[in-house]
Write a structure and sequence with these properties.
about 270 residues, single chain, SDR_oxidoreductase, SDR_fam, alpha/beta, 11 strands, globular, Rossmann fold, oxidoreductase
């Protein structure tokens, strides 16, 4: 039985992935900040709940030890994160710091002990990180969030080079919109009246599907499962029709032409 370690498993994509891998016969170590509140995953066979806040280095070390005591780990799915939305000048420095600390450094904190664990135990493990289509094609009013996702794409590519000789892979799943409670539970919104027209245009585009289409979390979880099991030497997996479309357009048009297209969409 293979085992996957998942962060941010209390809701959305993380929870959907935990349920999918369990249904496929995997052992799942599902981590979240308050596992005592979880009532669905706790009832599933071969699912183990552990506490994890990706900004808490001591807790990460403790949870890592508990996880490898449960089972050898084959896949680490770094999924925890949240979105900071709004114009840059409206953000406080503490908001900026928290966004980078959670979305980027949090992933590195979790990955750090597992890299050594895989290498020293000759495990051909896989790291899968949830990035976003905005880590490939930036969105307005999310500059710091965009930056954390671009950073994760770059980190994953670099780590893939470093660990290739050990048979350890780094992959990213870059979703577009996901139907979940992300907006209510995992989003920090800063507003400024000068940017209200742009903000209104963005919301309208999300509602009418011209800027983003929202896929069920279960559909994105299928892409995570594909990345974990397809045996391919492939790093990036765009997930969801909007992400796939945006990725293709970026590749076809190139950076500058695509930037012009996005500017037109947000006029």
């Amino acid at each position: 039985m293979q085992t996957i370690f998942i962060t941010g498993a209390s809701s959305g994509l993380g929870k959907a992935a935990a349920q999918l891998f369990q249904s496929k016969g995997w052992r799942v170590i599902a981590t979240m900040r308050t596992p005592e509140k979880e009532t669905v995953l706790s009832k599933l066979d071969h699912v183990h709940l552990l506490p994890l806040d990706v900004t808490n280095e001591a807790q990460i070390a403790d949870t890592f030890q508990k996880a490898i005591a449960i089972s050898p780990i084959d896949v680490v799915f770094n999924n925890a994160g949240y979105g900071l939305v709004g114009p840059f000048e409206a953000y406080s420095i503490s908001q900026i710091t928290r966004q980078i600390d959670t979305n980027f450094i949090g992933v590195l904190r979790v990955a750090h002990p597992f890299v050594k664990y895989f290498r020293e135990n000759n495990i051909k493990g896989i790291f899968i990180t949830t990035t976003s289509i905005v880590g490939i094609v930036a969105n307005p009013l999310a500059s710091v969030y965009d930056a954390t996702k671009f950073a994760l794409e770059g980190w994953s590519e670099g780590m893939g080079y470093d660990l290739k000789s050990f048979g350890i892979q780094f992959k990213t799943v870059a979703p577009g919109g996901i139907i979940s409670n992300f907006a209510a539970a995992a989003m920090d919104v800063a507003q400024h009246p000068a940017y209200q027209p742009l903000y209104d245009r963005m919301l309208a585009g999300f509602s009418d599907g011209t800027l983003m289409q929202f896929s069920p979390a279960e559909a994105i979880a299928q892409v995570v499962y594909e990345a974990a099991t397809d045996g391919k030497d492939q790093m990036r997996y765009a997930a969801g029709p909007d992400a796939i479309d945006a990725y293709k357009k970026r590749e076809q048009l190139g950076l500058e032409k695509h930037r012009e297209l996005v500017n037109e969409l947000y006029r």
